[in-house]
Write a structure and sequence with these properties.
By secondary structure, the protein is of the alpha/beta class. The protein has a single domain, classed as Rossmann fold (3-Layer(aba) Sandwich). Helices cover 26% and strands 27% of the residues. Strands 1, 2, 3, 4, 5, 6, 7, 8, 9, 10 and 11 form an eleven-stranded mixed sheet that branches. Helix 2 packs across helix 5. The longest helix is centred in the last third of the chain and has 23 residues. The mean pLDDT is 95. Bound molecules: hypoxanthine (HPA).
Length: 245
Amino acid sequence: MTLTAIIGGTGLTRLPEFEISHRENRKTQWGAPSSDLIYGKFHGADVVFIARHGERHTIPPHRINYRANIEALKDAGVSAIIAAAAVGGIRTDLGPAKIAVPSQIIDYSHGRAGTFFEDHLAHVTHIDFTHPYSPSLREKLLDAGFRAGIRVVDGGVYACTQGPRLETAAEIVRIERDGGDMVGMTGMPEAALARELAIDYACCAIVANWAAGKSTEEISMAEIEHNLLAGMADFARLLECLFKP
Ligand code: HPA
């Protein structure tokens, strides 16, 4: 039996049409995960769901216990993680409510516990992170998007900022110059921790707003919520195509 995890981000604290069987309040050596692990069937597949910001959306990006979340999923027997993540769009084809499956990451976050490999080591450990997302899982997501009739953007560089504030316009200019195509706050260290535990990991980035300075409008929570609602509906359809036999 393969067990796939979905990590829900902003705009996805619960999964529609998820037939829940049970919940589990797991503890790890790193502390408690953001929420219970919620198990069930999603269009016939065994799925476990975790709400990255907590089920009441109360945990900000820099306070998420990423190690506890990833280790709890590993302990539960998960072999693949699909991470939903709200982002600001930088590239012109990444407008509000679009979905992208990014292919690369640049990490601008700081001060986060970002590795399992720091104490009581037999050897210093360096993981290969050249391609931070699982190529095979990315392909499956893109194929599911195609079958669902959704124009999913293939690839792009996810820039992870510290948050919780949004960026300045100058920061976005810098990130764009660095090669960033979209900006979010939770992609790291989540992706690296999954790699450390050898779990396939890929991201569906849902564009909540134009990144700072990319539109003349002020970025409001109302706008973010509105766009995420539309983007998450597409994401749910993509997942349905992914899991349906
Ligand atoms: N910046 C960073 N993270 C985000 C944004 C943004 O503009 N929108 C949604 N998550």
